[in-house]
Amino acid sequence: MSSNHRRFSKILTIGTFDGVHIGHQKILKRIVNLSKEKDLIPSVLTFFPHPRMVLQQNHSIKLLNTIAERRMLLEKFGIELICVKTFTREFANLSARAYIKDILINELNTKQVLIGYDHHFGKNRSANINDLKQFSEEFDFEIEEISAEDIAEVTISSTKIRNALNNGNISLANTYLGYNYFLTGKVVSGQSIGRTIDFPTANIFIEEDYKLIPKDGVYVVKSIINDTQYYGMMNIGSNPTIKNKPRSIEVHFFNFENDIYGNQIVIELLSRLRDEHKFETLEALQEQLRLDRESALVYIKSVE
Question: Which positions fall inside the Riboflavin kinase domain (predicted)?
Fold first, then answer.
């Protein structure tokens, strides 16, 4: 196959890929390896919003990644072309034939599809792997089935990651992700109360309300700011000692004094220290924060 042909021909897998976790990574690795063998562009067709957000009224599914985070992770694992289709009711009503012909063939020039045995597509999800095989003969593309074992791994991992994060078990979530769970947000101004007790914090605003925020509590975190890595501790919750307020995310970075208001930063969650508590006084809170810092530094030393 010529390099000119490769520029247009794709090997493709399809799915929401929320989390881009270890189960997904196995599939992505297969795509990348096959792309090299067959001189094709490793590609992913994915959807946003999540189909359940569109088709199920009042469905409040929380996602492990924002769409921007999903793109970044897919690229990190070697995917060169990421096609994000806006999922609408109109899109859901596409016939199976139109879906294959218009998107996979005419738009993406797909030469091979790596897909699960249980994949359904087209209006009312009425078409299955057998229909796809018939379309592959008509439109001249190959199919490789993802095994039932690998599909189960994807499903189990996604469920376990969400459950782990909702329960505050960040170490288990990170094990299934194959990387540290992270939050991407903008540093905004807060009440500056942390500064009065020698624990200034960066308040993180996450625009995407569908992003899964882990269980309230105090976490050990790290972030790269201006090309330098900093550790810190993060509180998720309503700060009940000061006064109950809407849930917020605040990070105190160690050995860091720069002004980063307005910056977009990525916070990696490493370990969970404790639940959020209400203290009788600011002095009691300050003393607990000192203990938290000591615990965080012990943890950081153990992993460096």
Answer: 176-301
